[in-house]
Design a protein that fits this description.
single chain, 897 residues, 7-stranded mixed β-sheet, 22 helices, 22% helix, globular
């Protein structure tokens, strides 16, 4: 694309306006007397950014606070210019469900222009109704640099400074929040780490922390301290908040006399938070002193001999007094200052089993499994739009066959949190031990002061000289990259810890370990699920039908499903029918499953849809020749991937692993040698066993598809299902729900696929030719579709049950080892299937009973059995929801206390 003209030149602006549908439409909107526009034939535009910020307080007619705490700005482009628009509150649910997201095409069919009545000559376009087009916009792939395109403006109306400074359009807000949580720094306001400048320090005037503890008022003397611990950010803003940047962060700082808390406040957080790291030495020349807040969590010091001062804490404020902060470069830190070193308490996996609940420790390990990002509502917060983000990770350290199981919440380190991947070295500090009598395997969860570090971040960290870290590095030298890659898994449905063997509910208030809801309340619960939110609920009912479904399912109906997904859809809450609103809220749409055919020499169905939409809606941006050249290139890439042999593909992955495996040198100078590689005969043996396993899977599929015994219904189900008031069907296994083998060659796609969708479009990550089904699933041949009838026979729900059948499944870690009778109810209770024989005739795979035999032998025992079912709900985004059965209890396994 040719260079675009600058916005400030009137002749250039005129030239852009003639070629830009956005410019024409919005100029017409501002010129209209009604300041409102409806156009069902509007051009499709691409979404390049969706950004969130606090709204202003509004009061409804009954004097209740306006239900929305946040609002959204949406930046769109037609490939010629871009424009930032405000999203009407009625459409917020499209962002909450991740239906309106970056990378897609939309048609703005209704919009208005709203002047800011408190600011002269300023206003913004408000999007009031949209229609969805392609899920991967071609506009973005043919535009050189989306974020350098000129910005739509109208002299005296559009505030260009607001747009260029990355500030929100409305309510006078100064900054954006991250899209999916409130803990992460986001936007241009936040200053990244910069090397510190040289500072002159006069230690003769410095006051010690022990002297500061006894002060009745803040002394006018400087402090010289080292940062020992660092908390994640806390955002305490509300719609009525008047502060521009309402943030807070805690640090524990120490000198030779002891350790004290330091608090960084408000606008100082964007300036200093990312520059103040563990081990950083601070020279504070102006600060405040106040009584310490006694109810907050505190880290456990690595050095138990270090005295703690807890009655007062140091405050760094933008004013009254204005803090003066200096960071001392490491080369200028002198030993005679006697500042304590940052100390750690690293443990091995073999030591974890002997540690008590809530014990604090640090760990290092080689990552073998990374779960997808999930969200849960912040506990106890009145704001129902506040979420925590977290993910599950497995890491080995060589001292046990069992990995560390880590529950890692956002630590205000988004660039690290999003890059956790298999085959990387992971350090987690200030983790808390979680153990319960109901499950034997402890796990670790992050605390408010947890910091995480991965490959690329270890150099210069204080822990590099720790003996436990050095011992771990020595173990990694004995491992091969090929061996690590073989056991590396990413994504999919995962739950931990296992549910307790007995379900407990309190008689007085009805509270339980998992909330018990009436089946008629399920719709409300599902409607409230936001993007990537996980929720576990319990219901009482009867299991009335079970069916085993082979996976992947046949490709029949794929074109029909694709047409449903890619068909343009108008979203206007005020004009949708009740049935449409119900389907939109319940998220009952199915996902397309596409399987490449090696014999095909045509673009995939996905590519065809994109091509047709591009030629229809973006003809002015991409010529026919450009489109054909791009599609030929994509087709060549896909064909290349299809015809790659398994051995060649594996070899490529191993090569990539070798290239990315030189990470231990960050931790220790002597640990930079390449790991040993597997020999070629071993690779051939592995491939042969893999081919045998695939052949057995194919035979099993053919057998199951013809087996009528793979389903069961209770005797009364045929009569009862005709009397239902509601029947929810979540019986389709989405490809996103299956864990996949990690692929180093395509790690960027796999990481983004399992991360939260980004606020801004990232061209190097999104690719129309990528599909999750190209990546090897981890031993899943099929699943059970279970129908649960509510105890009052008014509502039923179809849910999935996916038992663990392989040690490669990440969910196998922590499951009980006790064998059971392999009945269907035993599966639903324990979550796993016991093999009939440890190996097959080839000696490589365990042997299990056929699903048809299991159902035929034991399903009838479920007839008319009153049970409690724990259900895991998870919103995948874009109207896709998965519902898995976590555990089933008999009423005899429930107690009231």
């Amino acid at each position: 694309m040719n260079m675009v003209p600058e916005v400030g030149d009137s002749s250039s602006s005129s030239a852009v306006a003639q070629r830009s549908p956005i410019w024409v439409a919005f100029d017409k909107l501002v010129a209209s007397t009604a300041l409102r526009q409806e156009n069902d034939d509007a051009e499709f535009v691409a979404v390049v950014a969706v950004q969130r910020y606090l709204t202003e307080p509004k009061v409804s007619s009954n004097n209740n606070q306006f239900p929305h705490s946040y609002c959204f700005d949406v930046t769109v482009t037609d490939g010629v210019c871009r424009a930032k628009c405000h999203l009407a509150h009625d459409l917020n649910h499209l962002v909450h469900k991740n239906k309106l997201r970056t990378g897609i095409e939309i048609r703005i069919t209704k919009c208005s222009f709203v002047y800011d009545e408190r600011r002269l000559g300023q206003g913004s376009v408000c999007i009031e109704q949209v229609e969805f087009g392609s899920q991967n916009s071609n506009i973005l792939y043919v535009t050189n640099d989306v974020f350098s395109l000129p910005v739509w403006s109208k002299q005296g109306v559009m505030n260009l400074t607001v747009l260029q400074n990355d500030a929100p359009l409305k309510f006078g807000r100064k900054h954006y929040l991250p899209l999916w949580n409130n803990e992460d720094p986001y936007g241009e306001l936040w200053i990244p780490y910069v090397p510190p400048r040289d500072v002159m320090v006069d230690v003769s005037k410095v006051i010690s922390l022990s002297e500061l503890e006894s002060c009745t008022r803040c002394p006018n003397l400087p402090l010289l301290v080292r940062i020992m611990h660092k908390s994640k950010l806390r955002f305490y803003g509300k719609p009525e908040t008047k502060l521009d940047v309402p943030y807070q962060a805690y640090f524990e700082v120490a000198d030779q006399s002891g350790m004290m808390s330091l608090v960084l406040w408000n606008s100082l957080c964007p300036e200093w938070y990312q520059r103040m790291k563990l081990g950083t030495v601070l020279f504070l020349q102006s600060y405040g002193l106040k009584q310490s807040y006694q109810w907050r969590t505190r880290p456990t010091p690595g050095d138990s001999q270090l005295q703690r001062f807890t009655s007062v804490e140091i405050s760094l404020n933008p004013r009254d007094p204005a803090a003066i902060i200096n960071i001392i470069p490491p080369k200028d830190v002198l030993e005679q200052w006697k500042l304590p070193d940052v100390s750690y308490h690293f443990i091995t996996r073999s030591e974890l089993d002997g540690l008590p609940h809530n014990h604090t420790c640090d760990v290092i390990g080689l990552v073998t499994f990374v779960g997808r990002c999930e969200r849960i509502k912040t506990k106890g917060a009145p704001d129902q739009e506040k979420y925590w983000t977290y993910r599950w990770v497995h890491a080995m350290d060589g001292t046990s066959d069992t990995p560390f199981i880590l529950e890692i919440f956002s630590t205000s380190q988004p660039e690290i949190f999003s890059r956790i991947q298999p085959m990387t070295f992971l350090v987690c500090t200030q983790m808390r031990v979680c153990r319960d009598a109901s499950h034997s395997v402890p796990y670790l969860t992050s605390s408010n002061e947890t910091q995480i570090f991965i490959t690329g971040c270890h150099k210069g960290q204080p822990y590099t000289s720790n003996p436990q870290v050095k011992s771990f590095i020595q173990w990694t030298k004995t491992q091969t990259d090929a061996g690590a890659l073989k056991r590396s898994v990413i994504g999919g449905h995962y739950y931990f810890p296992p549910a307790p063997p007995v379900f407990t509910q309190t008689i007085t208030d009805g509270t339980a370990q998992v909330p018990v809801v009436a089946t008629k309340e399920l719709k409300k619960e599902m409607d409230s699920l936001q993007y990537r939110e996980h929720k576990r609920l319990a219901i009482q009912g009867l299991i009335t039908a079970v069916e085993y479904v082979v996976w992947p399912e046949k490709e029949s109906g794929t074109s029909e499903q694709a047409s449903l997904i890619n068909a343009p859809e108008t979203v206007n809450p005020s004009t949708m029918s009740p049935a449409q609103r119900e389907q939109d809220a319940a998220g009952l749409a199915v996902d397309n499953y596409f399987v490449s055919d090696p014999e095909e020499d045509v673009p995939s169905s996905k590519e065809s849809v994109l091509s047709s939409k591009s030629s229809k809606s973006n003809g002015q941006v991409e010529s026919h020749t450009q489109q054909k050249r791009r599609m030929d290139k994509q087709k060549h890439k896909v064909a290349k991937r299809r015809y790659l042999t398994r051995a060649a593909a594996r070899a490529q992955r191993v090569i990539e692993a070798q290239e990315s495996g030189q990470i231990s040198e960050e931790l220790e100078e002597s640990a930079d040698s390449e790991p040993e590689q597997d020999s070629e005969p071993q690779e051939r043996d592995t491939e042969a066993h893999g081919a045998d396993h695939l052949n057995r899977n194919t035979l099993e599929r053919l057998k199951l598809e013809k087996d009528p015994s793979c389903s069961w219904e209770s005797t009364a189900w045929s009569d009862l299902k005709g009397q239902l008031q509601e029947h929810f069907s979540f019986d389709f296994l989405h490809p996103e729900s299956i864990p996949r083998k990690f692929d180093c060659e395509n790690k960027e796609f796999l990481l983004q696929y399992n991360n939260l969708h980004p606020e801004k479009w990232i061209p190097e990550v999104f690719s129309v030719e990528q599909d999750i089904n190209q990546y090897t699933p981890v031993v899943h041949n099929g699943y059970y579709k279970v129908t649960i009838l509510g105890i009052n026979h008014q509502t039923a729900i179809n849910a999935l049950f996916l038992p663990v059948m392989s040690p490669e499944d990440p969910r196998s870690v922590g499951l009980p080892n006790d064998p059971h009778d392999n009945t269907l109810f035993s599966f639903l209770t324990t979550g796993f299937v016991c093999p009939e024989h440890s190996t097959d005739s080839v000696g490589t795979q365990p042997v299990f009973l056929a699903p048809g035999e299991i159902i035929q032998n034991s399903a009838a025992s479920l007839d008319n059995l009153h049970v409690i079912c724990l259900l895991d709900f998870y919103n995948l985004g874009d109207q896709k929801t998965e519902v898995f059965i976590n555990k089933v209890y008999k009423m005899t396994d429930a107690v009231l206390v």
